[in-house]
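# nightly structure sweep
# worker-07 picked up a monomer target from the shared queue
# config: single-sequence mode, recycle default, output format = structure tokens
# input follows
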Amino acid sequence: MRTIAVTLALVTVVAFGLGRSQTPAFEVASIRPNESASGHGGAPFIPPGQFAVASYSLQALISFAYEVPSSRIIGWPEWTRSARYDIQARTGKPTTRAELLAMLRTLLADRFSLRAHREIREGDVYGLIVRTSDGATGPKLQRVIVDCTTMKLAEGSGPGLFPREARPACGDVTLSSVIGGIGVTNRFAAVTMAQLAAAFESGVGRPVVDRTGFTGTFDVELTFVRDTPPSVAAPTGNNPLLDGVSYRDAIKQQLGLDLRSERGPVEVLVIDDVERPTPD
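# output follows
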């Protein structure tokens, strides 16, 4: 009996250790409050084996970690939008994007006491539809057939919107902005309509569901004028770029698509608990 008891104890300890070792976590991570800026410092910096953001709100971090647009996350305190943080972390090994996001979720749970769950709720959504009855699209939405391993256009593909010999990876999104960030161009490489609809959510403030019926992948370019930040002068007639179209009008005019108000089921991330981070 003594031997059996010792064996069971060892099995329990080993199982506990395996459970901990299988929890994805950064090798080392630093979280520091950032009081110097009002806006976040662009996309996360993810070189091999590392993760870094500057002046990021917790809302932006949660949205990135869970791959859920902020319009689908509910239940967070106001400080999660206003308080900003610098984070630097090392993975300690080569990781995939999915593994890195899992590590980030562990960090948020450990340091911000984040607890969250997913639910399906009825809510306001937009249906992404084609504007014309004949299914014609705008000039900045071009169907492409791409070998996503080589990034080469396949036989029978349209020319797309990127240099033939220097295409970005499938699903890649690039953003360029000018004059204080008012004029913006988003470029999407070989995305599906479902991916494009999801990308529109942050710009229109509610979930977007693909209703186009289009299959395959598309190159997309969208140029628009975002809401004018308080610190930047409003557009004037002297600057054609700043007098450009709004986000929703750009979707109509440049892509030949539109957004239709609907009600429907929406998967949301519900914040159950979150606290300010523990010190390093």
